[in-house]
Specification:
Blueprint: H1 8-28, E1 35-38, E2 41-48, H2 62-83, H3 90-113, E3 116-124, E4 127-128, H4 134-165
Antiparallel strand pairs: 1-2, 2-3, 3-4
Helix pairs in contact: 1-3, 2-3, 3-4
C-alpha cells in the first residue's frame, strides 16, 4: 500500500467510530433531554441541519446539499493532498486523515438524515457550548494539526534560509 494512502485507514476508523457513537446516541438518548455525565458535560441528542454552531440551520433545506457538496469537495481535495505528501510528513498525514474522516462522517448524516447528529454538550454556569460529535472533534483536531504543521514548516524554512545566508 502506498505510504500516504495508509492514512485513509485512520479516516475509516474515524468514520466507523463516529457513526457508531451517533447510532448509540440516537438509540439511547431522548432528543434534547440532557443526560448529565459530569457537572460540566452532558450527553444531549440534537439534530443540526446547519454547519458549525448551527450556521444556516434555520434555512429551508438548501444548506443540506450545499454542505454536502462542500464535504465531498473537501474530502476529494484533501485525499489528493494526502497522496502527494512526502514520507515523514506524519503530522500533516494524520491531520488530513482526521479531517477527511470527520467530513465523511458528517456527510453521511446529511445525506441519510438531512441533519447531523450531535450529542456532546459542554457547559459552564449558564453558558452552553454548541453540541458537537466525534466527527466535529476529528475535524477540529485535524485543522489544529494542519496549522501546527504550517507553523513548523515556516520555522524550518526560516532556519534553512538563515543557514544558507551564512558564509
Amino acid at each position: 500500500m502506498r505510504q500516504p494512502l495508509r492514512w485513509l485507514l485512520l479516516s475509516l476508523a474515524v468514520i466507523v467510530l463516529d457513526l457508531g457513537f451517533k447510532g448509540l446516541a440516537s438509540a439511547n438518548l431522548t432528543y434534547a433531554r440532557p443526560l448529565e455525565v459530569l457537572p460540566v458535560f452532558n450527553l444531549t441528542l440534537l439534530h443540526n441541519t446547519g454547519a458549525a454552531f448551527s450556521f444556516l440551520a434555520e434555512h429551508a433545506g438548501w444548506q443540506r446539499w450545499f454542505f454536502a457538496l462542500i464535504a465531498i469537495g473537501a474530502s476529494v481535495g484533501l485525499t489528493v493532498w494526502l497522496t502527494r505528501l512526502r514520507r515523514g510528513e506524519t503530522l500533516a498525514a494524520v491531520s488530513l486523515a482526521l479531517v477527511i474522516g470527520g467530513a465523511i462522517g458528517n456527510l453521511y448524516d446529511r445525506l441519510a438524515h438531512g441533519y447531523v447528529v450531535d450529542y456532546l454538550s459542554f457547559h459552564w454556569g449558564g453558558y452552553y457550548f454548541p453540541a458537537f460529535n466525534l466527527a466535529d472533534t476529528a475535524i477540529t483536531l485535524g485543522a489544529v494539526g494542519l496549522i501546527l504543521q504550517s507553523l513548523f514548516e515556516s520555522r524550518r524554512d526560516r532556519q534553512r534560509a538563515a543557514h544558507e545566508e551564512q558564509p
